[in-house]
Amino acid sequence: MSFLHKLGIGVGAGTSREMSRTVGSTIRPRTPGSPVVGGSAPRAPEIVESTRVSNGLKELLWNLDGLGRGKLLDLGPAWQTTLSFFIERGFRVSSEDILRGWKGFLSEEEARLREDASLVEGLDMTPSGRAARFLKENLQYPRASFDAVLLWDLLDYLEPTLAKQMVLNVTELLRAGGVVFAMFHSKKPEGFQRYRVADSNTLQMISSAIICPAQKVYQNREIQDLFGRYRTMKSFVSRDQLRETLFIK
Known about the structure:
Layout: H1 3-6, E1 47-53, H2 55-64, E2 71-74, H3 80-87, E3 92-95, H4 98-115, H5 127-137, E4 146-152, H6 160-173, E5 174-185, E6 193-199, E7 202-207, H7 220-226, E8 232-237, E9 242-248
Parallel strand pairs: 2-3, 2-4, 4-5
Antiparallel strand pairs: 1-7, 5-9, 6-7, 8-9
């Protein structure tokens, strides 16, 4: 059984690795660290299942108020609505769909190993080894270059070892006083959804095909340990079993 299947990630159409998308009518490779500009690439129709009042988003904006021309990193899909929302408020926005990139990385690595099994001898196949190889090519931005990071709920879907290392990397990318907006499921989610900003206190939840199955449900203590280097943590728990949390560096 391949390590991809051990993770519960199927191999098939749509698993090829995608570059970060520019928001325009075309898809172009982007130099790491460069902002997203333009409009969005064509997408298959999505279904907005619902909207949710987001106290976490409201708190994020309160913390960023008065910043002026800040820089924000969105680690989800490059939705035009989200980009426009922050750009209109003076932010320079970069976007990198980490979860899709992770699945593409695993698919590519397994394909190479199928073609040449001898490569296994030169690769560290432990979770920490895979995490190191993935992050060597992703999240490549200058240190202390962002004022805010939209982490969404992607930590729930990553291998715990990768999630831990990624939080460390994101922390290095934040300036002092920078803010991370993250979400955590209180139980293993049955489906998969993406999020985009509708207004200053509302998120749209978009039903989507599963990219990676949920890997872990984090308890409060585990979340505190992950973000131990942050001076402030503030959480908002809602009835939909989704906890929004802000971390201030």
